[in-house]
Amino acid sequence: MKIFAAVILFSLATIGFFTWFSNFGIPQVTPAPPPKEEVLDLGAMTMDQFAALGERIFNGRGTCKLCHNPVGGRAPLLDKIGEVVPTRLNAENYKGKASDVESYLYESMVDSSAYVVAGFGKAGTNDTVSPMPNVTGGSIKLSDAEIKSVIAYLQKSNGLEITVEIPKDAEAAPETDEAGPREPFATVEDMFTEFACVGCHKLGVGEEEGDIGPDLRQIGTLRDRDYLRRSLLDPNADIAKGFEPDAMPPDYGQQLYAVELEMIVDHLAGLK
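Structure (tokenized):
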């Protein structure tokens, strides 16, 4: 009886310790709020300011530079669009409705499979499907005005005439000091959608999935939980063979709650 009582007391003490540690011993991490839409005072903007906004989006929230750069070779370079766009519009495999540089660039950001540059399509599609996500969805969520500002930046940086007009009827985003804490994601699938994970990885959750990053459909048989967690928190710590560094955003540790991070780790560990 004494042994039984001792076991019960030890079990209760152990449970109590882990309950205390999980609530007070582990630092409470509040993720950074998602990127806020640029505060746009469109009525007061000059075209130079509009193009400068597009440059900030291109290099930052739009994540364009992660793929459109000369190092990784994951997407076509955009330094000669004035030369290549007319050729692409007349190509046999062009499936879009654009008629000039401006409309082509807009179309390429919302329907990237309308034209796929040779060698840059998803594997197995014979360059008929682009891995680039629609920039109006996922974690990017650019507004119509923001897309047009990126076009203005690309036209200006290529030495072309800026043909876009600054939208005057778009409402400016409300100016706030700081976004409040968001509600936690309910499912792993919600997180995959929000952060556009399938734009780069195969995860077995849909038909159109990317191949810019490693195929994760059986990652649970290849890597342990510590590796998976480290890959999310510090994606450059271990680069999979055949892939380039700096392809994955490095701030998921700030964007995710601890419980959300563990949900993803659990899911990936179970992909066998």
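Residues 2-25 form the longest helix (24 residues). The chain is about 40% helix and 0% strand.
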